[in-house]
């Protein structure tokens, strides 16, 4: 016999109102209304599967610890209660037809306007219900205090308790309160959970709570997939058994799974894990890294500093495997500084994963992942889906349910594909896949106070995080990195940081941030943190017996240091490219492969054009303003020619080749050149460029006689007698005067004093380049002081600017719940482009597809017809591939970005493709040019995209006007 509820129209049993209160409209549930009880039980059933088949043991253990071993029951209960706030007048009145049934049964409302109903969101209503009812069944106040924000935040924003104030008319009073309590009791009863048994629920870490919040959202989103959870409007069809069967089918059909098996052989038994996984004996730095994490008692931070080519990646992956076994993690996230560096890392991680557990799928996370051939082949049977995320006037999603999945494009099946399931690559879900490689932006975005940030933490919670090329983060990005480290430490996530050129100050800041999170206090004593005495080095930071512990070791590099000659190129006052061309011509007169690195795309284009007059097709240009397909092709071709001997697809090394590139050549660009010409840059970046010089072991005879000794020629630097150094305006715009002045002093000293010993000199050079002691001759002192003052002021401003976007900041240390996490307003960050711009402190840039205007509609860049309105791209896969390959990111210029948002749209015929219909087209004329944001844009197959001011007499229409 069920609960009797007295309403204004008499007495009815609980089965009656369970059969009337709806949770999803027919539109959102596959054609038939879905009763609220059905959705709550569906989500609880999915929650059980998330626990059993997805969560890493480290997460399960932490929830078990706070619930006396009943973490599974607690998690399923929280999933089941997430939408209990829909049992309120505010929600039930949203659909007039369904509302009539509720009112007719006696659960009515008076004096409530639709506007008032919209203002009382069901997520907050649910928080009120659990916050008021659970203490009545014995829950402690501390237990309720950390649980209600999880219910309140299941739409991605966690409010302050002040936002829970409501009018009884919209929340419900009298019989409504009985109904709400009955839903809580019914969910608990169907799960065979005694609510009173959680009376002494302990509080998990705040980071653990945030991850748990994201996992509840994950369960909700799976259970909201109308393809697998169609609406059930008949109460007789709803049961816990039925929901579990639906969940099992959906889980299997979606292909969801967690990381590697917990019963696989422990890697700690391998005396040389690097050799075991990668087939080559471990180098000293690699052995030291693995040993350092073996000695950690639990999660911690490992910083590995080693020269370029030392094998840091292999060391990190081996160390991650040891850490995962130690703490109960089941996957990794590898964060790289750029999209271009993510692609080669993806291949390396995939090879390692095959050795660890070949059944675990992998994902590539960045905006141009679709252009990676290896990833494209793996995902060929994956169709991508998105979560509908319509915002109400309070910035919260409400489509009568949570996000629902819709069909996307399905490619032809490919047997044996090892990509993560399609579900993981819908909106905001990428980090939930067990093993992912992508840009570090995904980690930095986890440090922002943004909607659904908890999904990112749910993905990171059971992983080991590896961050490569950390020296590439500026002071602004570093604030988000420090915030991420605080949260990861609080959650118990191990982190491995890799760098070839890490400033000592940054090393200490990384250690301090991780310990702040572990200790949950802002003041951390780093007095006992030793500095490495050699290079390579490992720094381990962890907690033992409640106190910070440090372990620092130094090793010998596997390759002996070699002398690198340093010369400064004499250039004209306007830095015209003629001097660079002459120098390169002289150096490769007998053959050889040269790399020329310029600080701006425009300078690289000018230098390339000058060099082509001498070298013709023996010179290659590589920068970020080529279309995605062209850039990928050029990069692959250069690496095939100049990459490691014996690599797959390797070509014969050319007798002569000149590569002109921008900063894309600084990181994870595994090529070996005989001579380097590079614009002046901050010393750590300059040394990264030097890392391409004589990078691989080659027989002496393979290099021209004059290039057998490594040499770097520094361009973009003039040293006038009796005056301060000069450099191109573009270099100043990118790096500022302060770091360039310090680098210039070190370069000038090397040019007159015998060069550098690489890698032995690297740590000292980086420490000097970012240190406080004066560098350079006395006549530079005034300019250096002014530049430092300007730089420090800018750094302070950037730190403050970043603070406004941080998820919680140092002020959040020591808090015990998530209450009010999103209480502070931030600027709308509804697109990945805007969020990326925030964490990198850059102007927003826009990605577009280049198409040509033709005589009868539109053409691809190669001249293939797209039809009158672009429709051919939707029906012809070959044409679609060509269109997608013409994707390019416009320069981060405010005028261009504003014009792109205002003027550029998808072609009318692209609406039938899930990706194209969201993609802006930049329409080029027959001269391959367009006008946008007051700029004249021209695309050339050899130069890429060029910019110039719009001529006054140019009357052509804007680029988006077809």
Could you give the topology of this structure?
Elements: E1 4-7, E2 10-13, H1 14-18, E3 22-24, E4 34-35, H2 36-53, H3 57-65, H4 71-81, H5 89-92, H6 96-104, H7 114-119, H8 122-133, H9 141-152, H10 168-171, H11 175-190, H12 206-223, H13 240-254, H14 273-278, H15 284-294, E5 300-305, H16 312-327, E6 331-336, H17 339-356, E7 362-365, H18 373-378, E8 435-439, H19 441-445, H20 453-460, E9 463-467, H21 475-491, E10 495-499, H22 504-519, E11 537-544, E12 547-554, E13 562-568, H23 578-587, E14 592-597, H24 601-615, E15 619-622, H25 628-642, E16 656-661, E17 675-679, H26 683-690, E18 711-715, H27 729-735, H28 737-753, E19 756-758, H29 762-769, H30 781-803, H31 832-840, E20 847-854, E21 857-859, E22 865-867, H32 872-875, H33 877-885, E23 887-889, H34 894-903, E24 920-924, E25 929-932, E26 935-940, E27 944-949
Parallel strand pairs: 5-10, 6-8, 6-9, 7-8, 9-10, 13-18, 14-16, 14-17, 15-16, 17-18, 20-24
Antiparallel strand pairs: 1-2, 3-4, 5-11, 11-12, 13-19, 20-21, 20-23, 21-22, 25-26, 26-27
Helix pairs in contact: 2-4, 2-11, 2-12, 2-13, 3-4, 8-9, 9-12, 12-20, 12-21, 15-16, 16-17, 21-22, 21-30, 23-24, 28-30
